């Protein structure tokens, strides 16, 4: 049986966030307080490609702080890629924790199909 799931991403898992940054060939998240344009944010900073300020993920609350000035200081697509890669990595981690295997298939439209095989091997 097949199911389609839509996920609203909150960043709450440092392991999945670190895996997502590795997938994107970015430096690992760095904990601290970060100055955005007109405010400060605390959490794990992720410098996205061609962004003026990093994205800051508070894994306790799940909230993400960023300032890309409506796309002028960083393309929304890069943030979307971070969310997508985080969701992929989080789903894979949780499936494997429950003893399932996961097969990942990139699709032409940029989305990714994950197939979770209950009980292990594909």
List descriptors.
25% strand, single chain, alpha+beta, two-stranded antiparallel sheet, 122 residues, 2 helices
The biggest sheet, with number of strands, parallel, antiparallel or mixed sense and barrel status, is: 4 strands, antiparallel
Multimerization state = single chain
Low-confidence stretches: none
Principal-axis shape? globular
User: Which percent band covers the strand fraction?
Assistant: 15-25%
Strand runs, count = 6
State the helical fraction: 25-40%
Through-space gap between termini? 15 Å
Order of helices and strands: HEEEEHEE
Can you offer a commentary on this structure?
It is a single chain. With 122 residues, the chain is an alpha+beta fold. The chain has a domain at 14-97. It has two helices and six strands. The chain has helices at residues 14-23, 76-97, and strands at residues 30-35, 40-46, 55-57, 64-65, 101-106, 112-117. The strands form two sheets. It has a four-stranded antiparallel sheet, with no helix packed on it. Helix 1 (14-23) crosses helix 2. The chain is globular. The protein starts with 13 loop residues before the first helix and ends in a 5-residue tail after the last strand. 23% of the residues are buried.
């Amino acid at each position: 049986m097949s199911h389609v799931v839509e996920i609203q991403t909150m960043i709450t898992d440092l392991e999945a966030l670190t895996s997502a940054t590795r997938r994107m060939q970015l430096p690992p998240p760095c904990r601290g307080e970060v100055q955005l344009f007109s405010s400060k944010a605390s959490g794990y900073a992720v410098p996205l490609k061609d962004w003026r300020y990093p994205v800051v993920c508070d894994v306790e609350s799940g909230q993400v702080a960023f300032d890309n000035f409506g796309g002028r200081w960083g393309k929304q697509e890069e943030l979307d890629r971070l969310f997508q890669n985080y969701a992929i990595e989080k789903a894979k981690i949780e499936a494997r924790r429950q003893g399932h295997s996961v097969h990942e298939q990139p699709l032409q439209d940029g989305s990714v199909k994950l197939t979770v095989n209950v009980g292990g091997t594909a």
